Amino acid sequence: MMNDVEFEAWCCHLSLSDEAINEIQKTRSSEPSRLVDGGKKSVSGRFPSLKMGRTIQFESHQNELALIYKLEFDHDVLEYWDQPPTIYLEYLSKSGRRNRHPHTPDFFVIRRNSAGWEECKTEQELLRLTEKSPNRWTRIEVNSAWSCPPGQEYAQQFGLYYAVRSSAEINWIFVENFIWLEDYFTHKALEVKKVLVCRIQALVRAEPGITLNEIYQHVGEATADDLNILIVTRQVFVDLEKYLIFLPEQVKVFADQDTYDHYKLITFVEAPTVLDSRKLDITIGKIIDWDGVSWTIINTGETSITLSRPDGECSTLTNKAFEALARDGKIIGLLQISEVSSSEVEEFWRRASKRDQEVAYSRVKELEPFLNEERPRKELNRTQRRWLSKYLKAEKLVGNGIVGLFPNYQNRGWRRDGIEPEVQRLMEQHVEDHYETVKQESVRHAYRMFKVICHEKGYKPPSYESYRLAINKRPIHEQIEKRMGARAAYSEEDFHWYLYREETPAHGRRPFQICHMDCTLVDVELLSEIMLYLGLDPKELRGQAEMGRAYVITLMDAYSRKVLANYMTFDPPSYRSVMMVLRICVDKWRRLPQIIVVDRGSEFDNVYFDVLLAHYRITKKQRPSAKPRNGSVMECLFGIADQEFWHNLMGNTQIMKSVRQVTKKVDPKNNAVWTLARLYLFFRIYCDEIYDTSPHPAIRMSPRDTFRIGLERSGLRGHTLISPEEFKYWSMPEPRDRGGQRQVTAKGVKIHYIWYWHESFKTIRRRSRVVKVDVRFDPFDITVAYAYVDGEWVRCRPKRLSELEILSGRSEKEMLTAAEEIRRLNKLQGRDFIDVTDKKLAEFFKHVEMAETALSTAWRDAKKKIAIQHWRDVERQIIHALIEESEIEPETNHLLRLLNLPTPQADTTSNHELNDGDFSTDGFDNEYEFDLNIDLNAKPFEPLEVW
């Protein structure tokens, strides 16, 4: 991105007018004129541009995103801006009416020698728009490109350009290569050992066009990372628009682009049109005569044909030259075959049913004596003479007489249309206008109405069956959409079982390239860990310990189908649970996805999430609403987990689908035995040890093996590894207002009603009176905040130490809920000035704790927002302890000290251990080896020595 000096130099270089400079500056200084939305079908998102130092919006990941990749890689492009300020287009409509309306192009691109607006459209959309607005969209006949005359007219007044980019121009090979190499386009210094660089460059100079596989064989120490770095830094050259990097056996490597250009001039053979097999017999083994010498065709390729003489000498001709010699008669011996090609014969066989083939073979057997002249043809009866005539005719035209003996039973039937054309058109129109409406009329009712219309017009109405067949002939997707809406018709949309070659794969080419994140509600009713731990009377406990169902949010690698991270909480999905999943992923793998696919939920559409993705250069894709097929990777996992895990647990909610059949005995709430911590622990074991090692039907391998092989083949990409400590700061949100900054005062910095302090604030206040610092806070503990002071993040504490103990462990959501309650109480007391301070929050929570002294009574009597949220946060802290794998004391009182709860009078002398035959974690990773003594067969209301 250019600075002011470079921009002025660029303007002088192009001799731009003042009006053009002002127009460009308006684009460079303004925010995007609108936020894009992919609509019902397109996948939209944001691309973190290294060239621009900001995120770039795209409305379609198969059109606009492909152009973004091209602009990002093109060295001729200096800047490109998404959704520039609106311009006005003037043109004549199809009817001749003059139109003038605002238009927002997709991009404004600044190149070294030009600048202008660029609009992206699919080829199909442009063809449709040409018929609708022929004066706005036109095709250039010379190169089949597209143009927008009114856009060009607007741009020319500034000396700029307006271009239309069609999806037909996209080079999908380059797109896949860019995605494969994107991790290596970075400001970090990526280095390869000098010894390896010298050996590889010497090898490439000695053998231009050597493949990547051959380089790996000659230079055994070279890795995929080394070659990828050399390609990106242009220390070796690969044509990224021709060769796919992930196919090393096909990728040809050169010393530089000049060498590659010379290589093309020497070896490139023009590929003519493929020889017409309908006119020339060019099969291998065919003997031809060329200039009085017999030659044998020994190879037929896409661009050339190889011939061999009897003495062993070979000669290669291009297809174009061979076709010209055959056309001029210099090559003879090529049989001219019939007008019907072999492909058409195959079409006959493909359309013929098994019965047709049996009948044809039986007729051939009857004709064999006459064809072999064993019997005179005068003995043929009339039917056999007709068969023989068809056989000889087919043999002459197609080269296979049996084709003429197919009975073609499918062509039998009534040949005349029994309904008059006017009535047929009237019936089809009536179906479209009256049956296919939101009223959802029945077929019989619509037919009655149609009969009335026919009698009024003097037509004989068709039968009810004819009307029903006319309905069935209509497109079913369009019909359901008109009657029941788009969501009901979604199941009838075309399903793409595979992708065409020119498109990029939906699930990527390597691990961590594309990952899906989604959340779902667990189909199991849960109990409170703390209430069970207190060992209260089961009869009194039932109903008080019910926590409901939890949410599980999962991050999955689309390539290998491996579950990278998951998190479980009672809170509805929010940015807090999203950040927690990413934090778990970094703790476990030390890296994040290159592209992350999410739905349009509010937990994924917030500034905290977008800032985090932009910082780590992660492309965000949002799939269309109510389109579950776009997230089939996650939906498949949820379905498998339901069948293999959730629905096999006590207290599962399958029966609630038929709620009228639920009785007290089978009610999931009355059969609940699981707690959040135990369920989360075993779900992690299931994902990492059961699901991960089982063959996946989509990839025919286990996710673990696919993941391991993919990492080895694509390179470890060590420069993308992330420090968990660093990520912890970035995964913490910043306040939404004032750009995430706070002014340092004598009290410190104020975040969400609470004053935080650090000793470094004294130092920076001595330098200047007005000092602002970047701040972040822990959404799970409001007593923890960080400020960026003198180049490092320092941890701040609440300034009132007396309130630290009361507020410790309280979440942001709990604090905001309490603040809302304080405002409501102030309003009820008639106070006009509502002020929420840290002191009032502490006093409020103190009263709540006093009310919770008797826990069994508190849960029944204090079911308010703040109490419910507090107990959910208590359960969450247990989950976080499991995630962090901290050293957990086995003593009974440790958990209660951690949660500031009174110590129960329970028997802690007994030691609950796993009995023989119980579920064992032997063989699992160390991730699940806790110092826990858990009796999994214990009754749900017995005290468990969890900690």
TrEMBL record:
Pfam annotation, one family: rve
Alphabetical list of SUPFAM superfamilies matching this protein: Ribonuclease H-like
Organism domain of life: Bacteria
UniProt xrefs under InterPro entries: Integrase_cat-core (IPR001584), RNaseH-like_sf (IPR012337), RNaseH_sf (IPR036397), Transposase-like_Mu_C (IPR015378)
Domain spans labelled Integrase catalytic: 507-711
Protein name (database record): DDE-type integrase/transposase/recombinase
Source organism of this protein record: Trichocoleus desertorum GB2-A4
